[in-house]
Amino acid sequence: MDDYACDICEENEICEEAKFYCEKCSKCYCTSCVEHHYQMHKAHKTLRIERLRNWPFGKGIENESEQSQEHKDQKLTQLCEEHDQLLPTACNVFSHQECSKVKLMADNVTDLQPSPDVDTLHEQLIQKETELENNLPSQDKSYKVTGELFNPINVAKKKTRVRHDTEYSVKIDTDSDTCWISGICATTTGELLITDMWNNKLKLLDDNYKVVTHLDFSDKPWSICRVDSSQVAVTVYDNQIHFISVTNGELVEDITFQLEHSCRGIAHHQGNLYITSGTTLYQYTVNGSLVNKLYHNNVTSCGVSPDGERIYVTSGARDQLITLSRDGAVISKMTDPVLQWNDILPGMHVTNLGQVLVCGGDSNTILQVNRDGTKRRAILATEKSGVVRPTCVYYSKHTNSIIIGMFDNENILVIVLE
């Protein structure tokens, strides 16, 4: 091996042979300078020059690549210790035949010893891993707290994206009085129908909420529900149920049942009609046959869950939403400050997905309650949205909108959700 000069002495224009090499500093040191190096860098490890094999770039193999210049495209398999060069097999045969210290690189691999620095680094990594694991619980707690802090912001963002509120007039020339929209429903294709109590009419609306046709009744219509894809049932004040179909944009009256009691709210589920009289909830078939008296109390509007397991009724006299089982047993009774009706019809609607929407007629509020009918989930609209004495509500999946009918009001309010 060639002699190498001490880098420190060389910087002071002194020529002194190097005996040690520091990998961290990438410098060579003589016997004298290495003592000063030890004092300044106690953690640095040095190698004796004669043991050095992987010499740093710039200290003897500056222009040497991984392969010899004569055989650039051949794999390096041997080491000539006399010339400190890596060789392919062919290079040994042609250029280093006289060298006595040519060895296979694989034989030298077994002589490699792990550096103390590797052990130290491994211990440091294990220590850091332990610290990170110990910090995980506190990090999780911090994330939870942060999430709780941001949650009201996210809720507020959702609220700001909610809707566009628009009022549409549904009054027509033949109306003799101010409108009172007491019921709303739609066919499966999205054609919207409304009952106008003060004007004794059923009105069909187009996509722009304009009245395109209407049907006159002999008395006041209370409520409406869909019976099949294009047929609806309407309760009328004179103890009648009218079945009406929407055909080619026209309203066609199919059949009328005369009942022995008052007819107020109405809902349909799998061939059964649920009708309130103001004091009792009845169950009928669509053919007009009485099945059962399910519940006897003050009840006005009604709705049925999509699975038929829950029947919801409103009690205007008690300001309550009452949830019944399919056989009429009381599951729950809910009171809420916004469930105030006095003399306003307490309308409600159960969507195809089971959301329960209730009108707070005297509080000017539309409320969504949970499936069990025990607590509010959200206030969907208030007087600020234009809700004034609401008497019916309907959710249209075709337009993703909530449609609200109001007492003594010629407009319906449409809230388009986003």
From TrEMBL:
Residues covered by the B box-type domain: 8-49
Keywords: Metal-binding, Zinc, Zinc-finger
SUPFAM superfamilies: Calcium-dependent phosphotriesterase (SSF63829)
UniProt key word Metal-binding: yes
Recorded GO MF terms: zinc ion binding
Annotated transmembrane regions: none
Superkingdom as given in the UniProt entry: Eukaryota
Stated name of the protein: B box-type domain-containing protein
Species for this entry: Dreissena polymorpha (Zebra mussel)
